[in-house]
């Protein structure tokens, strides 16, 4: 899976469109990054920018934006309602897909070191990237704001993690870190009462409600031995919530911030609101996402609601999204378009996966054209994806078979595994063509000077290795598909045993087809140790595929006879 992170820098300029556009322009000009949102605020005198891409590109864009903000913004003349301490006040990196929070924190440290060293701006690390526990909280670092920076920088306890300890009156200081994705999410209630909406919010949010003696609303607040108010915790950790009335919609909502979706998921927050509302004589009529969210959040929700219905969760991505939207009423207040609300979809373009974006006829025509790509490698990946698809189909049919109701979860698990293999193989359809094109592009590089020859040779070797690793991955995944295929031949719906058998034939074809690509490409690799290992692995996997296909087809023959 491609690694994607999001960056949400806050710049201390919300009133001058020209300055804002100059900062965002350097982000848009960075290759591999997509600008997703620009949200200026006049009262706060602050602009929140959102962009995303692969980690190296995002860090490069963030550095350029911080450098541009330092050039354009003079903090000595800045005032605004929002707390701030620098031209780029805070710059969090957020993991979206294919990368952990810990890995994202390492990228944040690289960015912070570069900003401190090259731009000579004091930088503090926060949240997951914090250098010490007391610096995890942004509010603690920003205490006293810009005006307190001279004294803070002079205090050894508050020496920046990177950059100078001298006060920079123009740029101030910057806070850089890594945090989990924050989802802004509202649950719609069939009431106009803010008080009742707040009751649901207090039931749900981690902070809960203040504990009172006697009347739970008007009674005196109960305090602990330190005189602090005692609280009844809410149902959902890492959730902040409040009730409000939205005049535009004519309803009250529970407005939530889900600060750690690994702790409380979107569907868990929705269900908690439903339980609370029902206990208070109300109903959640739907919900809305404010801003963008990662794809996985909706996929997890779709699987949750399917399992709740005791249905197989091993369905397509499109179906999972449809179930999630309908189950949580995300289209209650207006159309919900995943292409506009899901970060990964916003980053996608047809050019990023041109082959799998085609229909069957277009794909066949493209393969049959005079162009050498797509070729055998892409076709192998696609054939493997079809084999895994057949395994998923049989698993889904088996989960709904009359009389097998108690086995739905068993078959759902197999369907999910097969779907995952299918999705990864589909991605390799285009990846294999990219690998071929990389070799062709490398051969087109100039070779006049010694330096050009060396660069060309290095590019060819790098591309060749890529063209070996890609079909090796196809072989590995196609081989893994034999697992769900065999399970469906042995345990699945007997009416579909031949479908599973065709899946085994597809898996073997994919392994052998990709194996041929490995064997032909290793001949041009100078790293003979790697080439020899790749050849040995490919041959071993081809033999293993032959054996597994033979065993499965024997089982199929036995079943149909």
Q: At the third CATH level, what is the topology name of the largest domain?
A: Four Helix Bundle (Hemerythrin (Met), subunit A)
The CATH top-level class label of the largest domain:
Mainly Alpha
How many structural domains can be distinguished in the coordinates?
3
| Low-pLDDT windows of residues | none
Strand residue percentage: 5-15%
Helix content: 40-55%
Largest sheet: 7 strands, mixed
Q: What characteristic shape results from the CA principal axes?
A: globular
Per CATH, the architecture of the largest domain is Up-down Bundle
Number of E-type strands: 13
Radius of gyration: 28 Å
Q: What is the fourth-level CATH superfamily of the largest domain? A: Formiminotetrahydrofolate cyclodeaminase monomer, up-and-down helical bundle
Query: What's the quaternary structure here?
Result: single chain
Number of helix segments? Answer: 18
Q: Give the distance, in angstroms, between the N- and C-terminal Cα atoms.
A: 42 Å
Structural class: alpha+beta
Mean pLDDT: 93
Could you walk me through the main structural features you see in this protein, from its secondary elements to its overall organization?
The chain folds into three domains: 175 residues, Formiminotransferase-cyclodeaminase, Chain B, domain 1, CATH 3.30.990.10; 165 residues, Formiminotransferase, C-terminal subdomain (Alpha-Beta Plaits, 2-Layer Sandwich), CATH 3.30.70; 201 residues, Four Helix Bundle (Hemerythrin (Met), subunit A) (Up-down Bundle), CATH 1.20.120. The protein contains 18 helices and 13 strands. Strand 3 and strand 4 form a beta hairpin. Helix 15 runs parallel beside helix 18. The mean pLDDT is 93. The strands form three sheets. Strands 1, 2, 3, 4, 5, 6 and 7 form a seven-stranded mixed sheet that branches. The protein has a four-stranded antiparallel sheet with strand order 11-12-8-13. A two-stranded antiparallel sheet has the order 9-10. The protein is globular and about 80 Å long. Helices cover 51% and strands 14% of the residues. 44% of the residues are buried. By secondary structure, it is α+β, with helices and mostly antiparallel strands.
């Amino acid at each position: 899976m491609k690694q994607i992170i999001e960056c949400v820098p806050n710049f201390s300029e919300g009133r001058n469109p020209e300055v804002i556009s100059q900062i965002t322009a350097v982000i848009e000009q960075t290759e591999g990054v997509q600008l997703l949102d620009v949200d200026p605020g006049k009262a706060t005198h602050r602009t929140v920018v959102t962009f995303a891409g692969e980690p190296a590109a995002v860090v490069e864009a963030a550095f350029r934006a911080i450098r541009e903000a330092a050039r354009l913004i003079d903090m000595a003349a800045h005032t605004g309602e929002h707390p701030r301490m620098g031209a780029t006040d805070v710059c969090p990196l957020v993991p979206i897909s294919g990368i952990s929070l810990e890995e994202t924190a390492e990228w944040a440290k690289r960015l912070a070191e570069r900003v401190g060293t090259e731009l000579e701006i004091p930088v503090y690390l926060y949240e997951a990237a914090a250098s010490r526990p007391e610096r995890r909280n942004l509010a603690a670092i920003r205490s006293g704001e810009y005006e307190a920076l001279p004294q803070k920088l002079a205090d050894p306890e508050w020496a920046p993690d990177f950059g100078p300890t001298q006060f920079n009156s123009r740029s101030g200081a910057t806070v850089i870190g890594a945090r989990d994705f924050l989802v802004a999410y509202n649950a719609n209630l069939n009431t106009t009462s803010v008080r009742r909406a707040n009751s649901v919010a207090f039931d749900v949010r981690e902070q809960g409600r203040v504990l009172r003696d006697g009347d739970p609303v008007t009674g005196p607040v109960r305090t602990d031995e330190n005189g602090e108010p005692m609280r009844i915790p809410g149902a959902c950790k890492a959730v902040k919530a409040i009730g409000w009335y939205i005049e535009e919609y004519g309803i009250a909502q529970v407005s939530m911030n889900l600060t750690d979706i690994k702790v409380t998921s979107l569907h868990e927050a929705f269900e908690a609101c439903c339980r609370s509302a029902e206990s208070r004589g109300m109903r959640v009529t739907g919900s809305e996402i404010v801003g963008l969210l990662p794809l996985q959040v909706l996929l997890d929700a779709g699987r949750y609601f399917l399992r709740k219905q005791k249905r197989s969760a091993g369905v397509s991505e499109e179906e999972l999204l449809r179930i999630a939207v309908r189950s949580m009423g995300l289209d209650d207040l207006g159309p919900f378009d995943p292409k506009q609300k899901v970060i990964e979809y916003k980053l996608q373009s047809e050019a990023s996966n041109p082959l799998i974006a085609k229909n069957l006829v277009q794909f066949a025509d493209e393969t049959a054209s005079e162009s050498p790509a797509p070729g055998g490698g892409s076709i192998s990946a696609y054939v493997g994806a079809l084999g895994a698809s057949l395994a998923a189909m049989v698993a889904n049919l088996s989960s709904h078979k009359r009389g097998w109701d108690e086995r739905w979860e068993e078959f759902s698990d197999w369907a999910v595994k097969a779907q995952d293999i299918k999705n990864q193989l589909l991605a390799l359809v285009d990846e294999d063509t990219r690998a071929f094109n990389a070799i062709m592009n490398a051969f087109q590089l100039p070779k006049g000077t010694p330096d050009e020859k060396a660069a060309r040779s290095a590019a060819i070797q790098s591309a060749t290795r890529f063209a070996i690793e890609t079909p090796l991955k196809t072989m590995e995944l196609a081989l893994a598909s034999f697992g769900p295929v065999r399970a469906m031949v042995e345990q699945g719906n007997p009416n579909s045993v031949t479908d599973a058998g065709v899946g085994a034939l597809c898996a073997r074809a994919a392994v052998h087809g990709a194996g041929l690509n490995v064997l032909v490409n290793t001949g041009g690799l100078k790293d003979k140790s790697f080439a020899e290992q790749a050849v040995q692995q490919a041959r071993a996997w081809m033999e293993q595929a032959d054996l597994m296909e033979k065993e499965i087809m024997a089982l199929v023959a036995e079943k149909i006879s």
